[in-house]
Design brief:
Elements: E1 3-4, E2 9-10, H1 42-58, H2 60-73, H3 93-107, E3 110-116, H4 122-138, H5 141-155, E4 157-165, E5 174-180, E6 185-187, E7 199-207, H6 208-214, E8 243-255, E9 258-267, E10 270-274, E11 294-298, E12 300-301, E13 308-309, H7 311-337, E14 341-343, H8 351-355, E15 374-376, H9 384-401, H10 418-428, H11 430-457, E16 462-467, E17 473-478, E18 486-487, E19 490-491, E20 494-495, E21 498-499, E22 503-509, H12 514-529, H13 538-546, H14 553-561
Antiparallel strand pairs: 1-2, 3-22, 4-5, 4-11, 6-7, 7-8, 8-9, 9-10, 12-13, 14-15, 16-17, 18-21, 19-20
């Protein structure tokens, strides 16, 4: 059967070429197949390392900011403030705001559904909607999502990676999803969209023993690397002397007007793998989707960069001033509770006995203790205006982060109705909803990449445990047969070409906030009391509900249209 490797099709059905592992690779003197010879040679590696150095220099300021922000989050920011002694007290207003934002994000943990663009793809879309959550669950995505949100709130940008790992599932291979530290990712300076970068690098420190077990030809070639990765400030000593920097480089190649993504792995100037040296991927690229396997999820957008800035960047000035005023108050209070005295040098007071409060008696010399012998040093209290400034800075930090009292469960006095509380919650959650929607867009991109990896690599069936229509557990076998690129055949003597099933990704909250549920329940009761579910008012109800916006609106319209019959 004749195959078109480039388009992954043949004359009858879209099939993938056989994956010939390491075919055509050359062997080193150890007999280990490494595939280091080919299009990607020493000259390419030298240029790649120079490019990496240039990219790294382009994000020096970003890396410095991210490392400093981590100190602010840990309440160790005084180490970065000039003139500080390093032992000042720190308050947790900034940390509390970040923690609340993180809780908001996790309360709106995303769920995904695939929507077909053509009726013939509906069944395939339904199955993908069932297996994608399983793929993400097997990768421990809830923790990945949580870690990414911490990073996003602190640094302004979270980075996800969606890769194909041929070692997973006992060598069958499967999708691997990771949260990637932005300190280890490098791209072309000045670009806005990461997909527009000429290349992108990911650098990771790996134990030398692990590398030698996978690449024996590296024996004697491991050691210190020329690549320095920015590090966070740790409490413990971190020893990296037995690790080596492994560089994953992704780059784009244009052939015949088509853009392909290729991939190579480098360690200490040695090529470990190159897709352009692999006959399986030479003509088609490493990933059929033609994109870099990274998704950048930004909080507050900055121009001229794929990264953004986070809440710490906009709150740390207020937090600094709060801490400065707070420390002044504490020092004043400490001085007030520990009075000091002027003692006349010619006085008769025994100073040691006077300073020791365990002594019941203080001896004096002479027969007369004058009023001028000892006198308490009087301190002026802090004026109320400074307390007002302190409280104003606290309010400023709360307002800046949208972390008002009612967003944390507190309400104004006299507000007791559930609907009113829910309204306050909703009003105070505008920033949170906008923030969460940004995360949903990134989550949708992750699922799009996952669908494409399923399309490319799921040649053999895999088993999934899903929830059936009746809520029961079901076990299904799934491969990519239904979503492969297909040859449309010939019509009227003309080749129609190929067809690739395309799916839209819809993301919503897996579970709604309790306050949202209360509001939704009250809305349902209001609709019922207004007669919206009365068949005689069907037309009026459909018009009114069509003007509303609430979760589950489509189902309500469907029920009303069908006279209350559940379909």
């Amino acid at each position: 059967m004749k195959k078109d490797i480039k388009n992954n099709t043949d004359k009858s059905v879209a099939e993938k070429p056989e994956r010939v592992v390491k075919k055509g690779y050359e062997k080193d003197d150890t007999g280990y197949e490494v595939g280091r010879k080919g299009i990607i040679d020493d000259e390419f590696i030298d240029k790649a390392l120079e490019t990496l150095k240039k990219y790294k220099e382009g994000k020096t300021s970003l890396e410095k900011r991210i490392v400093e922000n981590e100190q602010w989050f840990k309440m160790r920011h005084w180490d970065n403030i000039p003139g500080s002694e390093g032992n000042e007290n720190s308050s947790a207003w900034l940390f509390n705001s970040i923690a609340n934002k993180h809780a908001d994000a996790m309360d709106n943990y995303p769920a995904v559904s695939c929507l077909p663009r053509e009726e013939s793809d509906r069944k395939a879309a339904q199955i993908l909607s069932q297996i994608l959550p399983v793929v993400f669950e097997r990768n421990g995505f809830e923790k990945i999502y949580s870690d990414a949100w911490w990073y996003k709130l602190k640094a302004g940008t979270a980075v996800y990676g969606v890769f194909w790992n041929p070692l997973k599932s006992n060598g069958l291979g499967d999708i691997e999803i990771k949260q990637v530290d932005i300190l280890n990712v490098f791209w072309e300076p000045g670009i806005k969209d990461i997909q527009k970068s000429k290349s992108i690098f990911h650098v990771e420190l790996i134990n030398n023993d692990t590398l030698l077990s996978m690449y024996p030809f590296l024996s004697g070639r491991l050691g210190s690397s020329n690549i320095e990765i920015s590090k966070y400030v740790y409490d413990d000593t971190v020893d990296t002397s037995e690790k080596s920097a492994v560089i994953d480089m992704y780059y784009k190649v244009i052939k015949n007007g088509v853009e392909y993504v290729h991939y190579c792995k480098i360690c200490n100037g040695e090529l470990l793998y190159a897709s352009e040296n692999d006959p399986v991927y030479l003509e088609r690229g490493f990933y059929d989707h033609g994109k870099y396997p990274f998704v950048f999820d930004t909080l507050f957008v900055e121009e001229g960069t794929p990264c953004g800035f986070g809440y710490i960047d906009i709150m740390k000035d207020a937090q600094k001033q709060i801490d400065m005023l707070g420390n002044a108050l504490v020092r004043n209070a400490a001085m007030a509770t520990n009075p000091r005295y002027f003692i006349n040098s010619s006085g008769a007071v025994n100073e040691e006995e006077f300073a020791d409060w365990t002594n019941n008696f203080v001896h004096v010399s002479g027969s007369n203790l004058g009023e001028d012998s000892i006198r308490e040093i009087k301190l002026s209290g802090i004026p109320e205006v400074y307390l007002g400034i302190l409280n104003g800075k606290i309010d400023e930090l709360k307002e800046t982060s949208g972390n008002r009292d009612f967003s944390q469960g507190g309400v104004s006095s006299g507000v007791t109705a559930a609907s009113a509380i829910a309204a306050l919650q909703e009003a105070g959650g505008k920033l949170t909803r906008d923030m969460v929607k940004g995360g949903y867009r990134a989550f949708a991109d992750l699922n799009k990449l996952a669908v494409e990896l399923v399309r490319q690599f799921y040649d053999e069936p895999r088993f999934f445990r899903i929830v059936g229509p009746n809520g029961n557990e079901e076990f299904i076998a799934y491969d990519n047969t239904e979503i492969r690129v297909r040859n449309q055949g010939v019509e009227f003597g003309v080749e129609v070409g190929t067809r690739k099933p395309i799916f839209d990704i819809k993301v919503c909250a897996e579970k709604a906030s309790p306050f949202s549920k209360i509001s939704q329940n009250e809305l349902a009761l209001q609709l019922y009391n207004s007669g919206f579910f009365n068949p005689e008012m069907r037309s009026q109800a459909l018009i009114a509900i069509g003007m509303m916006d609430f979760e589950g609106k489509e189902n309500v319209i469907s029920h009303i249209s069908n006279g209350g019959v559940v379909l």
